[in-house]
């Protein structure tokens, strides 16, 4: 139990104390150029500016990551156009991440974490792990562990009309 507490709460706070700076100007989570897991191309993440961003980190053979990706897929269906989701693969070579991606089947773009991104947030990422950014890509929050759709919505800076009230609850 004590090791779980360390991994889930103490380690992430230590890792992100530098990323979640106390100043009013928050760092952007969209300043990175990452290699797509769907193609050989590299993409600048600032292409996703204009909508809130949810970056979900996954790794091979992570059953909780599979559940998190399913929940993000459901949330995208519940809030069409309300935010952009990105899957970021860690703790595996490109071949293993692509194989895992075929298993996960996210309804959103997937990328391989770059060395710079990992250096900025810390190499010891406990998955599933999520970074939240506002419309300009400014860092807003980080979440560790499996989150429900309702928990994710609370942290996303969404417009009030972004989510479909007619759809079933998450």
Task: Write up what this structure looks like.
A hairpin with a 5-residue loop joins strand 1 and strand 2. The protein has 170 residues and is an alpha/beta fold. The chain has a 7-stranded mixed beta sheet, sandwiched between helices. The chain has 5 helices and 7 strands, in the order H-E-E-E-H-E-H-E-H-E-E-H.
Q: How many E strands? A: 7
- Structural class, by secondary structure, is alpha/beta
The oligomerization state is single chain
Average of the residue pLDDT scores:
85
Number of helical elements: 5
Q: Roughly how many Å is the radius of gyration?
A: 15 Å
- Portion in helices: 25-40%
| Separation, N- and C-terminal Cα atoms | 29 Å
Please state the overall shape, judged from the principal axes of the Cα atoms: globular
Low-pLDDT windows of residues: 1-18
Helix-strand pattern, N to C?
HEEEHEHEHEEH
- CATH architecture call: 3-Layer(aba) Sandwich
Number of domains as seen in the coordinates: 1
In short:
By secondary structure, this protein is α/β, with parallel strands linked by helices. 33% of the residues lie in helices and 19% in strands.
């Amino acid at each position: 139990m004590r090791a779980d507490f360390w991994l889930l709460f103490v380690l992430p706070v230590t890792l992100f104390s530098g990323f979640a700076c106390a100043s009013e100007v928050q760092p952007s989570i969209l300043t990175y150029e990452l290699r797509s897991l769907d193609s050989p191309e590299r993409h600048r993440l600032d292409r996703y500016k204009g909508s809130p961003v949810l970056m979900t980190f996954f790794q091979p053979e992570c059953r909780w990551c599979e559940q998190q990706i399913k929940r993000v897929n459901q949330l995208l269906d519940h809030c069409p156009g309300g935010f952009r989701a990105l899957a970021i693969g860690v703790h595996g070579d490109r071949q293993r991440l692509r194989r895992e991606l075929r298993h996960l089947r996210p309804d959103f773009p997937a990328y391989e974490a770059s060395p710079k991104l990992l250096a900025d947030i810390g190499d010891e990422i406990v998955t599933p792990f999520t970074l939240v950014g506002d419309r300009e890509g400014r860092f807003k929050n980080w979440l560790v562990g499996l989150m429900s759709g309702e928990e994710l919505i609370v942290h996303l800076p969404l417009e009030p009309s972004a989510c479909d009230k007619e759809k079933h609850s998450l």
